[in-house]
Amino acid sequence: MVFAVGLAPTAAAIVLRPSLSLYYNKRKNSELMRASLNAHKDEDDPLFEAAIRHASLRFQETLRPEPLLVDPYAGCFVPHSVEVDEVHAELPPHQYCLATRFIDDKLLAATKEIEGLKQVVLLTDGIDTRPYRLNWLPSTIIYDISPERIFTGAARKLGDVGAKIPRSCLFFQIPLDSSDIQQILRSKGFTGNRPSIWALQGLPLVNLASFKEILFLVSSLAMKGCIFLGEFPGRLTETEIGIKCTTKEWMENLFMSYDFRVDMIGYDEVARNLDKEPALGDYKNTLFVAEHLRYSDDQMENWRREFQRVEEDADEEGFEEL
């Protein structure tokens, strides 16, 4: 699915949104920003419920006097039936919001600092607004791998509120349940011969095997040196980490088995770097940044073809000498 080219939301556009501007004038009336994605049929869908929880957290963070991030579209996903806590400016930010800001910053920094990086792959819950709210550089191609049924409803709602992809960028959605995600990505223009960056946040992963499939996907398609970052769901490790193995050691071994060198990032560290108080409460996810250490399949194929060409040239030269 390709979305039409448009303008990214600016600070001015956000301020002028009636719901948000009214909130700042009348803080108690947060209902003005909330709308139902409707769908009585979705309310018992665990994937939908998880995506709505994430949107609710971004919505609440946006309403803070000094927010970590501003998501002008999160409110349109929050049904009236979902309780939104009153915004307490004095409370620390939620770990999810710290991770969201960290990932946002890394994505934008990489696209600006790494020459030729125009491919961004987001592994999401289907209600990720990064393609619309971040200021992507011209010619960036954004891929969203997510549950199609969640994404389709979200895309319709985003269109209703006027969300657009930044001018000269392209956006493709890849259904998570596709039989061959690699092939679909390639058919949409993705190539392992060019830099890319991959971000995981919210993607519904059933078990550790499903995360390993993601590692295999990224390892196959990403060039050597590319970055894979995001939040690893802690529940996937509950039956995996033994007494003699720490979470750090287990994560390092897991990622290295797919040719990634990984660093774990503390949420408290992210908070300190943003001059915020550490987040409260237990949070099982692990924030990570991994560097790919091997060549992509496309790079290896190029090497094989070049090697074959050199061999054929050498055979021809030897034949001529005879």
From TrEMBL:
List the GO biological process terms.
methylation
Question: What SUPFAM superfamilies does the entry give?
Answer: S-adenosyl-L-methionine-dependent methyltransferases
Q: Which InterPro entries match?
A: Ppm1/Ppm2/Tcmp (IPR007213), SAM-dependent_MTases_sf (IPR029063)
* MF (Gene Ontology): methyltransferase activity
Query: Does Transferase appear among the keywords?
Result: yes
Going by the UniProt record, its keywords in alphabetical order are:
Methyltransferase, Transferase
Q: What is the protein name for this chain? A: S-adenosyl-L-methionine-dependent methyltransferase
Task: Recite the lineage of the species.
Answer: Eukaryota, Viridiplantae, Streptophyta, Embryophyta, Tracheophyta
